[in-house]
Amino acid sequence: MHRRNGYFPAVAEQNELQKRYLFGAFAAAVLLWLTVQTAFFHPDAENTAPAVPEDGLTVLVEEQYPPFSYADEKGELKGFDVEVAQGICRELGTACRIRPVQFERIIPLLEAGEADLAVAGMGMTPERREKLAFSEVYYRSRSFFITRDPDVGLITSANCRGLSIGVQAGTVQAASLAGVFEPLGAKVRTYEDFPAVIRALEEGEVSAVLTDGLPGYSFLKSPEGERFYIGGSVDDIESSLTQARVTALRTRSSLIGAVNRAIESLKEKGDYQVLNLRYFSFINY
């Protein structure tokens, strides 16, 4: 029987068919993987709109949320989130219009097309992912209680019955109180913004408040916070919810891709680290 290159023709043909089949299966698997990854991380990958509008970006930050966003003694907008937003716009080479709003208004304003981005420490929840695209993490934090009475001690789900606790509406802290502490007898009161939460604590409307750790520390370090105490941390909040991300509508995922590149560039240049240490005594990303 005729042989070529040391193989019987039938065997050579079979090997070639197997190679083609395996390569085709591998290529199909890779294509499926890429499709799943794109759909998972970039739900609107088909969007062909320009990532950055020609007239610049309107960026939402949370109003009066020191040290992330606040008006200084001259009335000028300052804060960590403000400067992160400015840095992102600078890296993207575009104008930056920063608009402070209440936290609960952020998603409705994005949906209404009145803003492009939000730099407001938003954690990623399943509900939010239905509407929003999220950047990589730009800072991390933890949540803890602040009390006006040192005798309250460490607040836990086991001893919270009858305790009045204030929290900012629409936050992951509010969700934690509603899901864990309120069913166990805690009396939860929600407020529209962080200053209102602190006023409630100062005026005795509540015995404690639950807050994100970074603004909480900022308050405790201030002269107004000297007479208050940490009442324990909350560990039942998923780490993904305390990882702050820049957000845009799902239909603007290409913009989030540009934001990720801008944040990475800020870190590579060292600008982000300098900014971080201007507001915090540690690197928190």
Task: Give a quick summary of the entry.
The chain has 285 residues and is of the alpha/beta class. The chain is built from nine helices and twelve strands.
Structure description:
- The chain is of the alpha/beta class.
- The chain folds into 3 domains: 10-41; 57-141 and 241-279, Periplasmic binding protein-like II (D-Maltodextrin-Binding Protein, domain 2); 143-237, Periplasmic binding protein-like II (D-Maltodextrin-Binding Protein, domain 2), CATH 3.40.190.
- It is 39% helix and 22% strand.
- The chain contains 9 helices and 12 strands.
- The chain has helices at residues 9-41, 80-92, 106-111, 126-129, 172-181, 194-202, 213-221, 253-269, 271-279; strands spanning 57-62, 70-71, 77-78, 96-101, 117-122, 132-140, 143-147, 164-168, 187-191, 208-212, 229-234, 243-249.
- The strands form 3 sheets. The protein has a 5-stranded mixed beta sheet with strand order 4-1-5-12-6. Strands 9-8-10-7-11 form a 5-stranded mixed beta sheet, sandwiched between helices.
- Helix 5 links the parallel strand 8 and strand 9 (187-191).
- Helix 2 (80-92) crosses helix 8 and helix 2 (80-92) runs antiparallel to helix 9.
- The chain starts with 8 loop residues before the first helix and ends in a 6-residue tail after the last helix.
- Residues 1-49 have low confidence and may be disordered.
